[in-house]
Design brief:
single chain, about 325 residues, mainly alpha, MetI-like fold, 11 helices, globular, phosphate transport, membrane, transmembrane, transport
């Protein structure tokens, strides 16, 4: 039924709610912050593209670092090293982050949960240089006997084959350090998502006779699946771009190998840039910037895939 003329006139003459000055300032600030982020992202993208063009068009025989090889042949081992180290770190950190978050949110007493959450969050405040020193000087020496044991007992697995590095500074050590570095942010996100699970859903599952683990599996995990994926992808993005810790821990050789215990280690893109930028000149600088562009594209693709997965999972949620 269409509205009557009197009702339309009343709606037109009704006073509009007055916007306060604080609301205007907040909305303007938020809009400006969003615009600044887009401008910075566009500026970084434009810089990387413009500075990378000479690396794609230069003569490989006359370009530093290429040594007569095409750019794509030069950058491929570093892309492999970046993805391989990050995937290992993600595989190690994801179950730990979910387990710690689950313990804090559903199992630990309140005081212990608060203390443990504070300690986990404190790990994110440790500089990456400190992680690098700890990994290179302490952690690698602790892991080296374990690597020998892995090689002796599980050397038939291709990952653990080959000669063991005598110093323990391998791609596996660097990946484990990365796993410790991304653990706080993954745990924090997963914990908050677990705590947002509707209490009525949990109580309903328990009232139907489910054990605590069955309640978590049927009520908490379906609700938090998108948040867990987001936390994992955010941790993966952090691992992809980490520089100093990997540079200090890894004995980089630029090899392409899935073996994780020997001295011939793949080199991630950030570590390659950090190790070579000081001596780069001419087109060599553009080559390193071009590898940074590849890393930028890989990270952007990872975040885009994560957003797509989260959006698909949002169609079904325990809150619906």
């Amino acid at each position: 039924m269409p509205p009557t003329p009197d009702l339309v006139a009343d709606q037109d003459t009704a006073p509009r709610p007055m916007r306060r000055r604080g609301d205007l300032v907040f909305s303007s600030t938020a809009l400006g912050a969003g615009i600044i982020i887009l401008i910075v992202l566009a500026a970084v993208t434009l810089f990387l593209i413009v500075e990378s063009i000479p690396a794609f068009t230069a003569n490989p025989d006359e370009t530093q670092f290429l040594n007569g090889e095409p750019f794509w042949q030069y950058v491929w081992p570093f892309v492999f090293g970046t993805l391989w180290a990050s995937v290992i770190a993600l595989v190690v950190a994801t179950p730990l982050a979910i387990g710690i978050a689950l313990f804090i949110s559903h199992y630990a007493p309140r005081r212990l949960a608060s203390a443990l959450g504070y300690v986990i969050d404190l790990l994110a405040a440790i500089p990456s240089v400190v992680y690098g020193l700890w990994g290179a000087l302490v952690f690698s020496q602790i892991l080296q006997p374990f690597y020998v044991w892995l090689n002796e007992n599980f050397g038939w697995i291709p990952f653990f084959a080959g000669a063991v590095s005598p110093g323990g500074r391998t791609i596996l050590t660097a990946s484990l350090v990365l796993a410790v570095m991304i653990l706080p942010i993954m745990t924090a996100i997963t914990r908050e998502v677990f705590l947002q699970t509707p209490v009525l859903h949990e109580e309903a599952a328990l009232a139907l006779g489910a054990t605590r683990w069955e309640m978590i599996r049927m009520a908490v995990f379906p609700f938090a699946r998108g948040g867990m994926v987001s936390g994992a992808m955010l941790g993966l993005g952090r691992a992809l771009g980490e520089t100093m810790a990997v540079t200090m821990v890894l004995s980089a050789t630029g090899a392409v190998t899935f073996q994780v215990l020997n001295s011939s280690n793949p080199t991630p893109i950030p570590a390659n840039i950090a190790l070579n930028f000081g001596e780069a000149y001419g087109d060599g600088v553009n080559v390193l910037i071009a590898t940074g562009l590849i890393l930028f594209i890989v990270t952007f693709a990872v975040n885009a895939i994560a957003r797509w997965v989260v959006n698909r999972r949002a169609e079904f949620s325990g809150a619906n």
